Amino acid sequence: MAQLWGGRFEGTINELAWSFNASISFDARFLEVDVRGSKAHAMMLAKQGIISDSEKDGIVAGLDSILSDVQSGKLQITDKYEDIHSFLEANLIDRIGDAGKKVHTGRSRNDQVALDMRLYARDEVVEMSEHLKNMLTALLTMMKDNLDTYMPGFTHLQKAQPVTLAHHLGAYFEMFKRDLLRMKDIYERMNYCPLGAGALAGTTYPLDREYTAKLLDFYGPTLNSMDSVSDRDYLIEYLAALSTIMMHLSRFSEEIIIWNSNEYRFVEIDDAYSTGSSIMPQKKNPDIAELVRGKTGRVYGDLMSLLTTMKGIPLAYNKDMQEDKEAAFDAMDNVKNCLALFTDMLRTLKFNKEQMERSAMMGFTNATDAADYLVNKGMPFRDAHSVIGRLVLYCIDKKCAIDDLDLKELKGFSDLFENDIFDAISLKTCVEKRLTIGAPSSAAMSKVIGAGEEFLQNFNIK
Ligand code: ARG
Questions:
Q1: What's the average model confidence in pLDDT over 369-396?
Q2: CA of 35 to the centre of ligand 1 (A)
Q3: Domain with 35 in it
Q4: Dihedral sign, CA of 297, 299, 303, 308?
Q5: Which residue among 88, 105, 122 closes a domain?
Q6: 275 pLDDT above the threshold of 90
Q7: How far apart are CA 459 and CA 118, in angstroms?
Q8: Which of 244, 235, 222 is nearest to 321 (CA)?
Q9: Which residue in the list 41, 156, 261, 426 is annotated as catalytic?
Q10: With CB atoms counted within 10 Å of each terminal CB, which end of the chain scores lower, N or C?
């Protein structure tokens, strides 16, 4: 046991209490950000004349050498240390002697860990936005390729009106676009530096907080030292945004699972992203999509865990907050994996276009357009609705589509039907006549795709 706080204690800590309290098993991943933050702190201390330039140089070189030794495997992070902060300070003192004992001047582990988490989460937000951009790029490519791939659009999981695959995928483009914009919002709100808040009340040393904030690429320092050490709002926002990404991925997964079913056969998942059964030789299962759907619950759980941890904590730092890490890391790791895998699965998905079109032909997806046809010939919409309703019933009985009837049969329902009805209710017409922005026609979709490309080109998280 190598702890930072021996002086005041006469006895030794219970072994179970030590490991219960320790966080090194999970905060070891802060190594790089802790080094980054500690170097900035040392540079500021030297600039302010609190430590000497040579002490600062020793600290910076010492921290760099510890980092590279851990990265190369020369030095192990072990549970002899309570947390990553203790590990670094102890090793620094080992390497550079007394100057190492000065790195913690004007700093507490409370503002140190607050900084580490912010730096770590900020890098993650940037990385997550790259994953989202990859997803959006993949969707745009698929949309461009499928402007005239007809398929049924559904409500209540019942065939409703024809759309195109481009249009259906475009709905997910909008969802992930909002997810990406949320990353930017979060980045902007979180990008303030808590270092210098001390334990809770700042310090008596003449720290230059603007300077450390600048060195670490923050917009500026946080403005209340008690809030600085106990704010985890940005993590909650981030986990809420990650939960929303998972909700979108989960809906998309559900669709892929349905589309991949024997009944639908809209898609075939590439062998690289499906698995077989140990007993049933014919099986090819959509496991990746199912797992993504499954992991959604776990990410929601991480958000709930953090919200619940924070709800009863009086100001300022309390050890409960150590619990933020495992939940946050779990959510970040899983969402990154899910996004990357799902995007690759999507890119390699084969669409059975004939089957999708056949499915759109059946199920009366053109019934609204048939009613609109009568309206255009002068019939009030409510009457047209009723005529087509009876026509559909007739077709169900005959086990055919409206398009399969001949003009004579149609005239039995209304005199207004003429030969142009067949063109008016073809899939192509049904789709291409929907010209308003946001609708599925290739003209409207092309505009939307153009806007999407422009959005992606101009997007910058910083
Ligand atoms: N491991 C701690 C955490 O994650 C670091 C801060 C410790 N602060 C303290 N006052 N014991 O929150």
A1: 96
A2: 17
A3: 15-105
A4: positive
A5: 105
A6: no
A7: 22
A8: 235
A9: 156
A10: C
Position of tokens 């080992």? Answer: 94
pLDDT by residue (tens digit) across 443-457?
999 999 999 999 999
For the beta carbon of residue 72, count every other beta carbon within 10 angstroms: 8
* Angle of CA points 365, 370, 374, to nearest 5°: 160
The position carrying tokens 């607050």 is: 114
333 pLDDT higher than 80: yes
What residue type is assigned to position 409 of the chain? E
- Token pair belonging to 389: 């309703």
For the chain, what is the total number of helices (H) and then of strands (E)?
Answer: 19, 6
Tell whether 395 and 258 lie within a shared domain.
no
Looking up residue 246, the CATH number of its domain turns out to be 1.20.200.10
**Does ligand 1 come within 6 angstroms of the Cβ of 321?**
yes
CATH label of the domain that carries residue 395: 1.10.40.30
Out of 168, 277, 414, 426, pick the active-site residue.
277
pLDDT at 115: 98
> Quick check: 6 pLDDT over 80?
no
Backbone region of residue 106 per phi and psi (left: phi > 0; alpha: psi in -120 to 50; beta: other values): left
